[in-house]
Every structure is written in structure tokens, then in C-alpha cells.
Amino acid sequence: MNYEDLYQKLQQDEKDVKDQLALLQKLFKAVSRETENGDMKSLTRDLSAMAEAAACISASVNGMKDAAGMFDTKEYFESGQFAEQMLAACVENQVDARGESPVYEMFPYRVRLDQENQEVWLDRKKVQCMRPRYLVQMIKSGQEKLNKASFHALNFVNELSDAYDLAIIKLKKRPESDIYLTSLYKLLAPMSRFRKDYDQHSFAFDLARLYISDVEITKNGKRFQFGPSRNNSKAIRILDKDGQEQFLATIRFFE
């Protein structure tokens, strides 16, 4: 079973529907004009043509409905064919994929396949997608967007340091304590509208670029150190310069 086979079938039917709708719209305009001026001969002819076009549309839509209904999404997931074709699409699109069913890492994204409910989760967001190739292309586009974004490691670490100082006060922590990176993200993007422009994927990507950079000291002369955590939900997965995964959970700035 392969969604691409269904996709090709649906594409042809979609084209037929589109063509017939265009014809129907053209005929409708003609019929409107003919009813106004009383051209009964042309009106009778064009109404018949409209009925034929509508019948063709109905047949194509029913064909699409039948084809979609015959596609067994449960088997597609449980047999592993979705995952297999997803990984093949990753190779085709040069997307680095790691892990095994049901969880795959495509930095900075995490893909989880819920076989029981036939659902795809991209991090904590459910994605309505039964086409592996489209899912991978969507991830590829996200990665390319992140790669194109300008980045200045020193500016970023300075902003992290400022957020860290604020977190120390807000959380009533001792200076130079370890602070969760997720807590700093909320301070860097405090409002939901800010998080739309700078989401956690972008934050993880910036952390990775800082991690592999040569920057070690902030403008105020402070050094910083990343740390792990026993709480995996707080860890942010990145890839280092060798393409090896690292899990960063905390950071501390110190003199």
C-alpha cells in the first residue's frame, strides 16, 4: 500500500472536476444571459450541457470518495508501510532521520507515529497528514527556513544571559544556578504572538548553532555551561558539529 498510488488517482479525478466546474461556470453565464434575453433555443441546449457537466462532476467526486474509502489507514500504519515510505522520502529529500518506530528525530523536529489512532505528531502538535512524502517535504521546508535565518552567536548568548539574569530574580534562584532552557525561552518569547515568529524549533536551532560556535564569553565577561536533566521533558535535542545528538536541559552563567 502506498499513498502515492492513491494520490495519482485522486489527482486525475480532481482535474476532471476542475475542468467540468470551469465548463459549468461558463455555461451558467450563458444560461443567465439566455434567460434574460429569451433565447429559448440556446437556453435548452446549454441547460442540457450543464446537466451533463454536473453528472460528470458527480461521477468524479464519487470516484474520489470510493478510492479514499478503500484506503485502509489502519493497515497502512500498523504494517509499517507509512514509516518505511517516510524514511525513503527522507533519503530522497536529504533529511537526516534517526530513531525507530514510533519515534523519529529530524532535527529540530520530533516525529511520533500513533499507530493505534493512525495519527502523526510533530513534536506536541498533531498533523493531519497521511502522505509521508508531504510530511517530509514540510519538515524539509522548515529546516531550510531555519537555515536561512540570520544568526549571530554573540548576540544570542547575550540575550540568553539577560534572560538568565531575569530568571534568577523571578524564580528566586541563587546566582550561577542551573536554569532550564525552556524557562529562558518563555522569557525570550513571553507572548503567544511572539512565539509564532520564534517557536521552540527556532530556539533549539539557535542553541545548536551556539553550541557549535566558538563563542565562550558574553559581552559582560561571563562564561556559560549547558547541563543535562533527569527530567527528559525539559531536555532539548540538538545535533553537534559531528551530527551527533546532544540533549541540553539547563544553562548557567558564571564569572
Q: What do you see in this structure?
A:
By secondary structure, the chain is α+β, with helices and mostly antiparallel strands. The protein contains nine helices and ten strands. The protein has helices at about 5-35, 40-70, 75-80, 80-90, 130-150, 155-170, 180-190, 190-195, 200-210; strands at about 100, 105, 110-115, 120, 125, 180, 225, 235-240, 245-250, 250-255. It has a five-stranded antiparallel sheet with strand order 1-2-3-4-5, with no helix packed on it. A three-stranded antiparallel sheet has the order 6-10-7. Strand 4 and strand 5 (about 125) form a beta hairpin. Helix 1 packs antiparallel against helix 2 (about 40-70) and helix 6 packs across helix 7 (about 180-190). The chain is elongated and about 90 Å long. The mean pLDDT is about 90.
Indicate the multimeric state: single chain
Gyration radius, in Å: 27 Å
- Inertia-based shape: elongated
Low-pLDDT stretches: none
Strand order of the largest sheet: 1-2-3-4-5
Q: Tell me, rounded to a whole number, the average pLDDT.
A: 92
Distance between the termini: 60 Å
H-E order: HHHHEEEEEHHEHHHEEEE
Instruction: Describe the sheet with the most strands.
Output: 5 strands, antiparallel
Coarse structural class? alpha+beta
Q: What is the strand content?
A: 15-25%
Tally of helical runs: 9
Query: Total strand count, please?
Result: 10
Helix proportion range = 55-70%
